[in-house]
Specification:
This protein is an alpha+beta fold and 469 residues long. It contains nine helices and 13 strands. The chain is rod-shaped and about 155 Å long.
């Protein structure tokens, strides 16, 4: 059971069924109440008509014993003293009108006294009494010819020819209302479960069809996880809905993950290769020194150790950058930093109009400048120029040399890790090929860019752009 309702299909089907059930129950209640109200109003109208018919006869001087009373509507005529003057034929009991009597009194059945026959004849056609309005509606029970039924009663006040005010109660049966409400309730009780079953089944099938691509994505992701093959991709539905966007985003994530893993694999392989040479050289020198101390090349050992230390520092910095290390939020003056990095370097000239402050890590930005200056020093013939200025909302730092420059085809490749364009160049002179890669990564981490172009003197021009503090 827990596993069943743990699925999206089951929860969607259950939710849809519950919503429809609540809506149908509410609609059914409204229908039943409206039906009951309409039928009750109809019964009130019938009772009104029956009461007015009897009251009209009384107002026209029809004797109580001779009243034409509708057998389908129980009628009770009482005076102000609650004495019964007339009842309809077959009425055995009555409740709800305030007077339970169903047996007319002797005086009430007598005909009115008329001394003038002519006047009596004329009175047959004249409204002698006074007819009032319907003053009350109520509900009660009556037994007619042995059958007890619920009725809606109407009351009307009328004054007879002898100036006596009487009340006429007439009822209309509620049996039709009860039958209609009972039938509607039965239909709802039978139809509601069937309709809910249809809604639940349709929702289950529709949800299953809609989630089929999601199951395909899940299955493919499980196989990718098991096989560790990041080159595989999940199927993308030929639609434009949320599932299709989920599949595309998943494939984009897999592509980024594959690129990251492949990049890390290359990084580990290249790092192992780069570390192997200085370690092997240092070991050879130490082994020779152990066997023949007089042949110890101390300067070479120190140089290999320094190179190994720098390479390890570069690898650690790249590892921190790849891990998403955020730069510090300190304010750094690029002009002052350029002056510090250029100090002691032959042929390096710094030009700055004034302080140019950016926000970031002073150590990392200093590393960028050092790497750019080292790269320029390796390729410059005689001079390296560092320029720092403001340009709109950006700080611009340029490092230009008068060397051979960088070919257009290689201007992006030089920023890749462990890339050295001059393969014939010795490792001692050219480094490990990490300086420019580190410089670009640090620039991007600081919200900036690092590009290369042509310098005015014909060499390479590296341009660092960062947001101003």
């Amino acid at each position: 059971m827990k596993r069943l309702f743990g699925s999206v299909r089951a929860r969607a089907a259950l939710a849809a069924t519950l919503v429809v059930a609540v809506a149908l129950v509410a609609a059914g209640a409204v229908v039943l109440l409206t039906l009951r109200s309409n039928l009750t109003g109809q019964a009130d109208s019938e009772a009104d008509d029956a009461a007015r018919s009897v009251a009209t006869q009384i107002a026209r001087d029809v004797p109580y014993a001779d009243l034409d009373l509708d057998e389908d509507h129980p009628v009770q005529v009482v005076d102000e003293d609650r004495r019964v003057l007339a009842v309809s034929e077959g009425l055995e009991t009555i409740s709800g009108t305030g007077v339970r009597g169903v047996t007319p009194t002797t005086g009430g059945t007598e005909s009115p006294d008329n001394d003038d026959d002519d006047v009596g004849d004329d009175a047959d056609d004249l409204l002698i009494g006074e007819l009032g309005d319907i003053s009350w509606h109520g509900q009660g029970w009556a037994t007619v010819d042995g059958e007890r039924t619920e009725y809606r009663f109407a009351r009307i006040e009328v004054t007879d020819p002898r100036d006596r005010t009487v009340l006429v109660h007439a009822g209309a049966s509620l049996e039709a209302e009860r039958d209609a409400v009972r039938t509607a309730s039965t239909v709802m009780l039978i139809g509601l479960p069937a309709l809910l079953a249809v809604v639940g089944s349709v929702t289950w099938l529709v949800t299953r069809r809609a989630l089929r691509p999601v199951e395909g994505i899940r299955r493919e992701m499980a196989e990718i996880t098991a096989s560790e093959d990041l080159s595989r991709r999940v199927p993308e539905p030929a639609t434009h809905d949320e599932v299709a966007r989920l599949a595309r985003t998943t494939n984009e994530t897999l592509s980024a993950l594959e690129t990251s893993v492949e990049r890390q694999r290359r990084f580990v392989a290249d790092a192992s290769h780069e570390l192997r040479s200085p370690i092997a050289s240092l070991r050879t020198q130490l082994e020779v020194a152990a066997a023949h101390p007089e042949f110890l090349d101390l300067d070479g050992a120190v140089e290999d150790t320094v190179r190994l230390q720098r390479l390890a520092a570069d690898l650690l910095l790249l590892a921190r950058l790849d891990a998403g290390e955020r730069p510090a939020g300190a304010r750094v003056d690029l002009a002052a930093l350029a002056g510090e990095e250029a100090e002691g370097r032959a042929g390096v000239v710094v030009r700055a109009d004034g302080p140019v402050e950016v926000t970031g890590s002073r150590g990392q930005l200093g590393r960028v400048l050092a790497n750019l200056l080292d790269n320029a020093a390796r390729h410059a013939r005689s001079a390296v120029t560092v320029t720092v200025r403001r340009e709109g909302e950006r700080a611009v730092l340029q490092v230009a040399d008068d060397g051979d420059g960088v070919a257009v085809a290689d201007r992006e490749r030089i920023f890749e890790r462990f890339v050295r364009l001059d393969e014939a160049r010795s490792r001692d002179d050219g480094g490990a090929g990490l300086g420019l890669a580190i410089a670009r990564d640090v620039a991007e981490r600081h919200g900036g860019t690092l590009t290369v172009g042509d310098a005015p003197a014909g060499g390479a021009l590296f341009e660092l752009r960062l947001p101003l503090a």
